[in-house]
Design brief:
Length: 296
């Protein structure tokens, strides 16, 4: 957890109240079967989220990506996105239960990815916010591979700890909040023969410019930079929601080649990652998070 300044007494009280509410919500949700909770939240988000201002942003992004689609088609995609996000919000509270039920998962790996998993080789898993992305590492976890992960810390340290604990079954190699120390910690994990997982589809204003859906977009250089520095392959992964809480998890290996031009290498690798992302988003556009400010 990152170092934090001590909150004021009023802020500390607010944090305790928020953490207490979050704990109560998690407790109540876990009294309900995961299939029912996921379906209910998916319905609620599909019904009410379109009234959120981010709905218009998602539509605008879709128009950039699919200029020939009708308004009805775009609306259908975004409502599907909201349903998926609602399901993800509920399923977060059941990660440990979902992991134990192997019948919910189908794993598809190319030859390179399968070799990495079988031989437990060091690599960098890079995923995108599609399906239930929290479960991308399920095949590796099932095979006993220890993974270190990265997450965005919350302002409320008590609530952060609660949500962080729900993911400890996935990241037994440590879950590191984004900070100046994080790249060194992740590099150490890879240098020691470990596996690191991170998201790669978010925009970074000072990042690498890529072509995404025929439009210039900005992407984080972190995955490419880390894989190049540690000289490890990248496994690009995704989760496809097949039917409610049934999932297909796919991995595709990318070899990381190095030249004397570090900047060009990072730009090329980041574009390679986004080429895979675009291919996959086009297959299931209603499962990707279009509310990201990827282009604007």
């Amino acid at each position: 957890m990152t170092d934090r300044a001590q909150p004021s007494p009023l802020k500390a009280l607010q944090y305790r109240i928020e953490a207490g509410l979050l704990s109560s919500i998690i407790f109540l949700f876990r009294l309900i079967p995961v299939d029912i909770a996921s379906s209910f939240m998916g319905f609620c988000w599909r019904t009410f989220a379109p009234f959120n201002s981010r709905h218009k942003r998602a539509i605008a992004h879709l128009k950039k990506a699919y200029p020939d689609k009708s308004d009805a088609d775009l609306q259908a995609i975004v409502r599907g996105m909201w349903e998926n996000l609602g399901r993800v919000s509920a399923e977060t509270f059941y990660i440990d239960k979902l992991l134990k039920d192997g019948r919910r998962f189908e794993a598809i790996a190319d030859e390179g990815t399968q070799k990495i998993l079988d031989e437990k080789l060091p690599c960098l898993f890079v995923s995108l916010h599609s399906g239930n992305w929290e479960l991308t590492v399920q095949p590796a976890v099932r095979m006993g591979i220890t993974i270190a992960g990265v997450y965005q810390a919350l302002k409320n340290p008590s609530a952060e700890k609660i949500l962080k604990d729900t993911r400890l079954h996935l990241y037994k190699g440590g879950l590191h909040s984004k900070s100046a120390k994080t790249p060194r910690l992740l590099r150490n994990a890879l240098d020691e023969g470990g596996v690191v997982a991170m998201m790669g589809d978010l925009r970074e204003r000072r990042g690498v410019e890529v072509n995404f859906f025929g439009q210039p977009a900005f992407a984080t250089p972190a995955p490419a930079s880390l894989a190049r520095a540690a000289d490890v392959p990248i496994v690009v992964g995704r989760v496809i929601r097949k039917n409610g809480t049934q999932f297909t998890i796919q991995g595709r290996m990318l070899n990381v080649t190095k030249t004397d031009d570090r900047k060009a290498d990072i730009a090329r690798i980041t574009q390679d990652i986004h080429d895979v992302f675009e291919e996959w988003v086009r297959e299931h556009p209603d499962q990707w998070m279009w509310i990201h400010r990827k282009w604007d």
